[in-house]
Amino acid sequence: MKTPLILLLLPFFFAPCVLHAAEFRAGAAAQDITPATWPVHLVGSFSERGAEKAWDRLHARALVLDDGQTRLALVIVDSCLIPRSLFDEAKQRASKQTGIPTDRMLMSATHTHSAPASLHRLFAQANEAYLEVLKRGIVEAIKQANANLEPAEFGWGQVDIPEHVHNRRWHMKPGGITPNPFGEITDQVRMNPPRGRGLLDRPAGPTDPQLSFLSIRAAGGRPIALLANYSLHYVGGVLPGGVSADYFGEFARQIRQRIAPQESGGHPPFVGIMSNGTSGDINNINFRDPQPRKKPFEQIRYVARDVADTVGQALKKIKHRKAITLAMAQRELTLGIRKPNAEQLALAKQFLAESDESKLPPRGKAYAAFGVELAEMPPTEDIILQAIRIGDVGIAAIPCEVFAEIGLEIKERSPLKTTFTIELANGWNRYLPTPRQHRLGGYETWLGTNMLEIRASEKITNVVLELLADVAPGGAKRQPDSK
Asked: How far is it, in rounded angstroms, from Cα 228 to Cα 255?
């Protein structure tokens, strides 16, 4: 019996696909974005603060990945927050220089509270010269990471580190709720209450203790980069007199000491990266413990060292693979902007006209300015949402300070078994509480601290899950809404 011609030709047609299969490549780079001229205004508080020096260096840290079909870039920037307009301009510049499409770039701020202002706010005016330093640094980081692309392998891991993350919103015992900036005692919870057991009742939400990390190595095993994600707002807080990358930068230094302490022998240096997870209601203060905390810089080093030690140990147990595929999806979502009503706007204008701030509630004038600002904004805002798949790992990107319970829901309902969220990505749209948390009130829900419509978290979560389904292998579907 003769062999059919089609069977004889099969090896001829299919062999080239195997022999010329694209390989996974990766490159990383860090670009210094520390101010070169002083002073600069700092963000992160309700009073004017300036910096005359750098306690440590600020960086834009980039990771570029390529599977032969898709090339994408992730950039994590040592900044408190960065507006979409700045990120958009940096993406356009980087795309022109690298060919990477702008919708294949994820850019995010770490949320250090000791960084130069990146936009004009009430207590912190951005320095135009520094904004250019910031944009150029982001672009250069992507450009260098793209130039550093080489055959690579990928591994990932997760480890719980619960001792550093605490919910900062608390139900209080009678007498524990203080007036909001509008002079009302309507909140049911309080942000950053006094420590100790006197007035504390219970936390208003969960924490996410899980740290996820992605390890990128050269084909021969040399470390290229490690990207971590942990839902911790910051550690050092408002540091006096100078700029600092907070624990995010210290983690990058510490993890490099553990993974790649030696010079790279002519190869690009290893890049450690810490991104911020869903930490809108999470910080580093154990409110039930009245014991004094370490001084800010000591606490930064303590947390970064402990987290780096834990990641370093977990890294020894993971496996790296070379056959990695990538996918990325992006969508714009239009959301409503919260507006003050006529009575609130009149009160805001009255507060702004008052010269004696002692007659106003605490932070009354600041929130009056925020209210007027919101009143003058367009009725809607377009935000960018993204999903990335690296091998079997999913990454969501949201441009807000996202509450932990939202990140936990995305993890639970994601079609990808391993998923984490990078917040403050591709813009800054203030806090993102759930509708339930809105009903509880508190700092993160106040008009001004918060800007997006009350049900924004539900709409954002649904779109993010759709995007994760789009990038999942085989078009896997997300889990149904459990509500």
From this structure: 10
Q: Are 318 and 393 in contact (CB under 8 A)?
A: no
**49-58: pLDDT as tens digits:** 889 999 999 9
Reported as a single tens digit per residue, the pLDDT across 217-250 is 999 899 999 999 999 999 998 888 899 999 999 9
Across all residues in the chain, what is the average pLDDT? 92
Task: Show the 3-state SS of the chain.
Answer: CCCCHHHHHHHHHHHHHHHCCCCCEEEEEEEECCCCCCCEEECCCCCCCEECEECCCCEEEEEEEECCCCEEEEEEECCCCCCHHHHHHHHHHHHHHHCCCHHHEEEEECCCCCCECCCCCCCCCCCHHHHHHHHHHHHHHHHHHHHCCEEEEEEEEEEECHHHCEECEEEECCCCCCCCCCCCCCCCEEECCCCCCCCEEEECCCCCCEEEEEEEEECCCCEEEEEEEECCCCCCCCCCCEECCHHHHHHHHHHHHHHCCCCCCCCCCCEEEEEECCCCCEECCCCCCCCCCCCHHHHHHHHHHHHHHHHHHHHCCCCCECCCCEEEEEEEEEEEECCCCHHHHHHHHHHHHCCCHHHCCCCHHHHHHHHHHHHHCCCEEEEEEEEEEECCEEEEECCCEECHHHHHHHHHHCCCCEEEEECCECCCCCEECCHHHHHHCCHHHCECCECECCCHHHHHHHHHHHHHHHHCHHHCCCCCCCC
The two structure tokens encoding residue 214: 């992605």
**Under 8 Å between Cβ of 41 and 117:** yes
15 — pLDDT class (breaks 50, 70, 90): very low
Residue with tokens 């408002």: 238
Q: Which residues contact 465 (CB under 8 A, 6 or more apart)?
A: 410, 413, 414, 415, 478
Percent of the residues in the chain that have a pLDDT greater than 90, as a whole number: 84
> Which is it for strands 431-432 and 401-402: parallel, antiparallel or unpaired?
parallel
Structure tokens that stand for 268 in this block: 């690009």
What would the two tokens of residue 455 be?
Answer: 């049900």
Residues with Cβ within 8 Å of 91's Cβ and at least 6 positions away in sequence, in order, are: 102, 105, 107
Report domain extents, the chain.
25-169+200-335+379-475, 340-376
Distance between CA atoms of 438 and 400, rounded to whole angstroms? 15
- Of 338, 335, 371, 334, which Cα lies nearest the Cα of 352? 371
